[in-house]
Design a protein that fits this description.
By secondary structure, this protein is an alpha/beta fold. The chain has a single domain, classed as 3-Layer(aba) Sandwich (Rossmann fold). It contains nine helices and seven strands.
Length: about 250
């Protein structure tokens, strides 16, 4: 029996480091053949070395929208089908609202939203051929749960991701494709550590309104995504699940 028949096939974008790598790790632990997509080939190679034989890597800049149909065609040609898509890749930018240029705004929207739309469309075309359907998990943010200053483009993109999750779930669930979303709270990654450690006031505020009082771990997001992508969540669609230590309900 080929690997394609034995194992579910997943794509995780931005899977070379941080939360994406943790998600890929949790899927691999569950015997899902996980394809990580990213721009940095060295990072992807290091991730594959860590994840082992159930991991494949594809280098692609998803902001180059014209590359996406060929990427998905190549993956399907090599692996037979796609069962799970995790839209994790995203970029952020911290700037005063009045200093954000049209180009700045469009760059964030292109990577965080338009690329997610285009990738999901191409993957769904393939998933519709799967007898067992498929599962899409999008990654949102606390920025879509409440207002955070100086991240206007990022906030717009992540709020749109949550709306798109609900719209896609309603349209695709009758066809056997579930669509859900995870909204991470403040998670301890290299990127967030740098941001929070450089801004003690922001760090104190983040932890102060998190009832559990600690930063989350990338593995916490990985577990939530792996659950929503799995058959254990077969009756769950269209939800936005905060994984945030209570941050979104904290005072």
């Amino acid at each position: 029996m080929s690997t394609a028949q034995q194992n579910k096939i997943a794509i995780v974008t931005g899977g070379g480091s941080g939360i994406g790598l943790a998600i890929a790790g949790k899927l691999v632990q569950r015997q899902v053949h996980t394809i990580i997509v990213g721009r940095d080939e060295a990072k992807l190679a290091a991730a594959k070395a860590q994840l082992g034989g159930l991991c494949s890597i594809y280098s692609c800049d998803l902001s180059q929208l014209s590359a996406i149909p060929n990427l998905i065609a190549d993956i399907v040609a090599a692996h037979g089908r796609i069962d799970i898509l995790v839209n994790n890749a995203g970029i952020n930018m911290k700037k005063e609202f009045t200093e954000v240029s049209d180009e700045d705004f469009e760059r964030i929207i292109r990577t965080n939203l338009t690329a997610v739309f285009a990738l999901s469309r191409e993957v769904v075309k393939q998933m519709l051929n799967n007898p067992h359907g498929g599962s899409i998990v999008n990654i949102s943010s606390m920025a879509s749960q409440y207002g955070i200053p100086k991240v206007i483009a990022y906030t717009a993109s992540k709020s749109a991701i949550e709306g798109m999750t609900r719209a896609l779930a309603t349209e695709l669930s009758p066809k056997g494709i579930r669509v859900n979303c995870v909204a991470p709270g403040f998670i301890a990654t290299d990127m967030s550590a740098k941001a929070l450690n450089n801004d003690p006031e922001r760090k104190a505020k983040a932890l102060g309104r998190t009832p559990m009082g600690v930063l989350g771990q990338p593995a916490d997001i990985g577990d939530a995504v792996a659950f929503l992508a799995s058959d254990a969540a077969q009756y769950i669609t269209g939800v936005v699940l905060p994984v945030d230590g209570g941050n979104s309900i904290g005072f």
